[in-house]
Amino acid sequence: MPLFRSILARDISRERAALAYHARRIHIDRFSVVAKNVNNSQRPACLFLERTREFARKFWRCAVPARKLAEDEINKLLSRMNGWRLVSGKLHKQFECKDFNAAFGNMTRVALIAEAMNHHPEWANVWNRVSFDLSTHSVQGISDLDFVLAEKIEEIFAAQTASRATSGT
């Protein structure tokens, strides 16, 4: 399901939904990163990512600063997030992958999205496990950006889990 159509995206402003849509245009497969433009033609990912980073930095830092969420907002959004919980004032979840390569591949996919959003997670990787702790330093707490990134992380790891289920491994 596209990020901008999800339940969480309805709770954020139109400007943030526009950037989420822009960031989700990054298509990642096992061997290459290819960006598709409006005409569905392909171009080198480095050019696309550079433009995305430039857009994201201007957009997030200037036009739409992160908004710290109140405790009731956090609890409401957290109830919609499967397996995410509040630990030491941060959103936390641990994922388990097939092996180290799958874990590292998913971390790379998350890194591309995080860089485009200019919102970087705290994470740890031990063999096939990846754990995330999300918070926003600029607001000294949890912001709407953390939930957008958490949802994107869910999509990335869910796709890997779904492919394992269909392949029977």
Structure description:
The chain has 169 residues and is an alpha+beta fold. The protein is 50% helix and 18% strand. The strands form two sheets. It has a four-stranded antiparallel beta sheet with strand order 4-5-7-6, covered by helices on one side.
What's the number of domains?
1
- Strand percentage: 15-25%
Q: What's the end-to-end separation, in Å? A: 24 Å
**CATH-assigned fold name:** Gyrase A, domain 2
Strand order of the largest sheet: 4-5-7-6
Let me know the number of strands: 7
Can you count the helices? 6
Order of helices and strands: HHEEEHHEEHEEH
Can you give the mean pLDDT? 73
Strand pairing plus helix content: what structural class?
alpha+beta
What is the CATH superfamily? Transcriptional coactivator/pterin dehydratase
Largest sheet: 4 strands, antiparallel
Helical amount: 40-55%
| CATH class annotation | Alpha Beta
What is the second-level CATH architecture? 2-Layer Sandwich
